[in-house]
Amino acid sequence: MRPTVAAAAQALLYARRDLAVDDLTDALVATVHPRADELLVALAEDEPAALCRAVDRWPSDGDRRARRGAAASYGLVTAPHATAEADRALLRRSALALLAHPADVDLHGAALTLLVRDPQTRDRYLPQALRVFVQGDPHLSAAELVAALPTHREPVIAALREALTRPGDGAGEVLRSLAGIDAPALALYAAGLVRAYVDSHPEGGAHAAAYIDRRLEHGAAARALLLPLMSGLLRDRPAPAPVRGALARVLAAPGTPASGALRAELLEVLLEFEQGAHRDPVVLDALLCAAATGSARRAPVRTRALVHRTGMLLVRTPEGAARFDRRLVELARDVPGFARLVTGWLADAPQEWAAVVGPGARRTVETLSTAMTMPMQAPGRGHGSLRPA
């Protein structure tokens, strides 16, 4: 691809930035162009002192709302790279200047984020940041508050709990942030918030499952947290079927080498629960779908065991048997390679599978497998070829 004029200009400005880097940052922020934004982001990483000076200048640049907006956004971009105390002092001053503009309420979340990140100003501004967060300010993320948990556990936990009660989709971001907590004591508080969220939001199973999915990637260290959480969701106060279905999809997924063993252990807990009186076709259907869609990344023997066990649970009722056959055919048609796997199982142990797969579903899956593995006939003479004889 040939370089554009904008790309060439961007490269030249970056290469010669040492000639007048402060003038360069001011010129870039005044330029409405994606390449200018990209260069400012690069300078935030490579020249953080220059960006800190710019972020400090821009809130005082007359009454220009756009400059204050730039100070807020690029202050957040620069903060992770500002390690010198002089640079952090400039970011603090910029954030305080932004808070001094009552009309710029939409910028206060970013300003408070900078002040909460800074240990020197966290104590003073965290209460205000928590109030703004609970009100739903999109510029103050749960991840920033989670970072303050080690020093301000109780007020942060209370704010996160209140945020999880709000309507809307903000719970997903809160739970994703909680999943990243490593300290065991704090992670226990996070698990309690997940349990409370499921109790009050039975429709939010996907968010709770996503939390568990992320925690699983912590490997064996996550077992002490997730096993009691799963037991509580299944045995103490059983979660509704949609939540358990979301959990089934996560636990039956192949995952990574770090999470594979723990996924299998927790899936066994869920399957034991579903074998009892709480058996629900919604959960088993989700498990069957996860078994099929992950079959390319999982050992075939493991996929076979999951499909067979799910089928044995479903076929205990006529409705479940019909549902299993219907879904098996859909998955054989839609998931590459799955029809061939199922056909192989049926051929290897016909009696074992006869109690699970109905005759109609078996014929359809075998037909699909044959159609998908049959080589395509190349066009030629006598087969509608357009080539001259």
Amount of beta strand? under 5%
Helix-residue proportion: 55-70%
Query: Could you describe the largest sheet, including whether it forms a barrel?
Result: none
Structural class: mainly alpha
Order of helices and strands: HHHHHHHHHHHHHHHHHHHHHH
Notes on the protein architecture:
- The protein is mainly alpha-helical.
- It folds into three domains: 1-147, no CATH class; 171-278; 295-372, no CATH class.
- The chain is built from 22 helices and no strands.
- The protein has helices spanning 5-15, 21-29, 34-46, 48-57, 65-78, 85-99, 105-117, 122-134, 142-146, 153-164, 170-179, 184-200, 205-216, 223-236, 241-252, 260-274, 281-293, 300-314, 318-334, 338-348, 350-354, 359-373.
- The longest helix has 17 residues, at 184-200.
- It starts with a helix and ends in a 16-residue tail after the last helix.
- Residues 376-389 have low confidence and may be disordered.
Please give the structural blueprint.
Elements: H1 5-15, H2 21-29, H3 34-46, H4 48-57, H5 65-78, H6 85-99, H7 105-117, H8 122-134, H9 142-146, H10 153-164, H11 170-179, H12 184-200, H13 205-216, H14 223-236, H15 241-252, H16 260-274, H17 281-293, H18 300-314, H19 318-334, H20 338-348, H21 350-354, H22 359-373
Helix pairs in contact: 1-3, 2-4, 3-4, 4-5, 4-6, 5-6, 5-7, 6-7, 7-8, 8-10, 10-12, 11-12, 11-13, 12-14, 13-15, 14-16, 15-16, 15-17, 17-18, 17-19, 19-20, 19-22, 20-22
